[in-house]
Amino acid sequence: MPRKPTRCRPSPRPLPFTFSPFFRTVAQVASYCKANHQIHESKFHKKSPPNAAGNGIINHTLEEKSEQSEYSDEDCSEVVAQANFAFFDPKPDDFHGVKILLQTYLDNKLWDLSGFVDLILGQTTVGTVVKIEGDEDDGVFSLITALNLGRYKGHKCVMELKEFLLDVGQEKDVKDALRLLLGEEAQNVGLLVSQRVVNLPPQLLPPLYDALFDEISWATEDEPTEELRSSFCFKFFLLISRIYKHKNAGQRKGTRVDIDEAIIYIKPEDEIFHKLSSWSFSFPLHTQHVTTHELRNYRLMGLVMAIEADKVSTFRKELHTLIDEP
Fold it and tell me: What HEC string does the chain produce?
């Protein structure tokens, strides 16, 4: 009997499309108008425990008044849009959509991105893509997966990814810890890849991460061989993400930026990951990005984090709290 994804509780009231001043700014730049959304999430082909009830479909409705963006020259008021977002297993047809999402995953490095996408799409038991249901263009709006760095260590894309991380990691202590995870401990490390369009409704985040971590747990029991089952017994997760860091962060007292203002997290869940991480480091990026008035004192940075797998339950709880809070 196929497993079903963890159900999420429908929101009892309309929630904001974004939930921080910066995230709202970025969303406005990327999308001129806010709109009403009816979100219908479904994930099929997952294995379910015996006697599981339900049909594996998660229904969630988000309604919000559309308003005119300060960045738009057109009158976007009174515009209503509807989108049915659905969760799917990765498949070969998603190649171009996933590749677009990952285009700047390693900054401006020339590497085997196509091979990396192939690895992601070839792992169907763990991983999710979000698309608009019935969309003929088959565009991908979000991707989430976890790849075992030891299992795929012989692939060119993974070797190049490791080389990139060791090049950008400068602090000796952190670099030694990173080298350990990429080398001796690689079989126990999951590279957590989470990429999405900037204005994806945040209400999709908890079920997306719940689905990922549930699938990892199921894979440790359901994969056909012991080797595959053990490849999902992660002890650590390694994340590569992006933040905005204040240009004066870390300076001496008097000009030092308040710690709450020093970093702006492009992905809200990264703040939770960062807090729970065993170690982390940031590095400057070279890819172009949107510059707004609010960001004039910030620089775009890459962020690498290592999180112990036993912190996952804490992360899931805090993510649900973050999204559900007023």
Answer: CCCCCCCCCCCCCCCCCCCCHHHHHHHHHHCCECCCEEEEEECCCCCCCCCCCCCCEEEEEECCCCCECCCCCCCCCCCCCCCCEEEECCCHHHHHHHHHHCCCCCCCCCCCHHHHHHHHHHCCCCCEEEEECCCCCCCEEEEEEEEECCCCCCCHHHHHHHHHHHHHCCCHHHHHHHHHHHCCCHHHEEEEEEEECCCCCHHHHHHHHHHHHHHHHHHHHHCCCHHHHHCCCCCEEEEEEEEEEECCCCCCCCCCCCHHHHEEECCHHHHHHHHHCCEEEEEECCCCCCCCHHHCCEEEEEEEEEEEHHHHHHHHHHHHHHHHCC
pLDDT, tens digit, for every residue of 286-307?
876 666 777 788 899 999 999 9
- For tokens 């804490």, the residue is 314
Q: Residue 115: CB partners within 8 Å, gap ≥ 6?
A: 155, 156, 157
On whether the CB atoms of residues 79 and 65 are closer than 8 A, the answer is no
Q: In Å, how far are 116, 255, 309 from 144, measured between CA atoms?
A: 13, 39, 16
Tens of pLDDT, residue by residue over 5-42, are 433 333 333 333 333 444 433 333 333 233 333 334 44
Integer Cα distance of 90 and 222 in angstroms: 18
* Residue 162: φ, ψ to 5°: -60, -40
- Kindly tell me the sign of the dihedral angle through the C-alpha atoms of 192, 198, 200, 202: positive
Q: How far apart are CA 298 and CA 30, in angstroms?
A: 19
230 phi and psi, to 5 degrees?
A: -70, -25
